[in-house]
């Protein structure tokens, strides 16, 4: 049997591969600190768990509409209005199996064989694979720390060619946590629109703004953490992707959504009907409770905890003499420059895991540009684990200094 070239060409997701190596070490009896995966340790809000157990008393889980439960689409629309002061018609919201499901459907709807799509380097590896899966040819554009590792209008202009169909940007991004400036994003949206292209904006970390000072600034008022949907001029060419996985801590529930141009809705509906039938009914019913005041208060408390952890991590990294070249504004990642250690990212991660039992992810998971110089640390981990992990990384870095 011969497997499809598109399948065999996919590289492994290194963050997961390091997780498997960590499991092997644990099976040998070692205590491994896992800072490799982008999975919040908080889990779903209590109100969601309560809603789930109530629904289990009267199990009724038929297929829903392919676009999702109407009440959930309405609740997401209300969330945009209340949290982001942004009007989004529920009819343009498609509930999906995570942001991944949304990206798959959007790629199926937009990408033809041989189309070129522009993405920044570094960026979340799976996003480019959805585009590749439908024959898209992804150009990874090197980004710079001074631009927050985000694309600029200039980059898009200089890489756009006659085959270019669109741009995909995640903001705040994985692996850097850095956001694109709203004006720059709007300028890119305008350029895509003028060139008959699309712009997919992955806003999965939008509501996880990090507070540098410990103040309780509202995420939506911070520069760079505005949804692109506030620019209503681009609603016919911009697709916004979001998820219940990160802010709501519901990774394994496989639930997300996208907001699409009205003309794209029937296409998405047909694709969703055929490819998924519908998102999980069980998860959708429980997720309605995400938008209760208790659940939202719990998510905000989790965000404050992540901000405190970010401050802990950034100062520990600095004390090790390593650099974070662009300070993250959201998410739960530190993209650490390890050039000073003299090791490349893979050697750094391999030695750290083998000798100090801490799992990180090498920059090579996220692209090619200077990928050997960076490792990603995820601080979506309990404080005691994080503190011990940082202590071990510091010991590892000191050992490298002694050796060199
Ligand atoms: C930038 C980005 N987009 C999309 C996803 C996929 O998330 P989901 O669990 O909603 O499919 C992730 C997961 O880490 C991510 O970091």
The hetero molecules present are:
pyridoxal-5'-phosphate
Number of helices: 13
Give the class-level CATH name of the largest domain: Alpha Beta
Hey, roughly how much beta strand do the residues contain?
A: 5-15%
Kindly identify the CATH topology of the largest domain: Aspartate Aminotransferase, domain 2
Q: How many strand elements?
A: 13
Distance between the termini: 50 Å
Rg of Cα set: 21 Å
Strand line-up across the major sheet: 2-8-7-6-5-3-4
Assign the CATH architecture of the largest domain.
3-Layer(aba) Sandwich
Q: Overall pLDDT, averaged? A: 94
Helix content: 40-55%
Oligomer: single chain
Total domain units? 2
Structural class: alpha/beta
Query: pLDDT below 50 for ≥5 consecutive residues: which ranges?
Result: 215-224
Largest sheet: 7 strands, mixed
Account of the protein in words:
With 404 residues, this protein is of the alpha/beta class. It has 2 domains: 5-43 and 295-403, Aspartate Aminotransferase, domain 1 (Alpha-Beta Complex), CATH 3.90.1150.10; 46-291, Aspartate Aminotransferase, domain 2 (3-Layer(aba) Sandwich). Helix content is 41%, strand content 14%. The chain contains 13 helices and 13 strands. It has helices at residues 5-8, 14-27, 46-57, 70-84, 98-110, 125-133, 153-159, 182-194, 265-275, 281-287, 293-319, 345-356, 383-403, and strands at 33-34, 93-96, 116-121, 137-142, 164-170, 198-202, 238-243, 256-259, 323-324, 333-337, 358-359, 361-362, 374-378. The strands form 3 sheets. It has a 7-stranded mixed β-sheet, with helices on both faces. Helix 5 (98-110) packs parallel to helix 6 (125-133) and helix 11 runs parallel beside helix 13. Pyridoxal-5'-phosphate (PLP) binds at residues 38, 98-100, 124, 127, 170, 174, 202, 204, 243, 245, 251, 256.
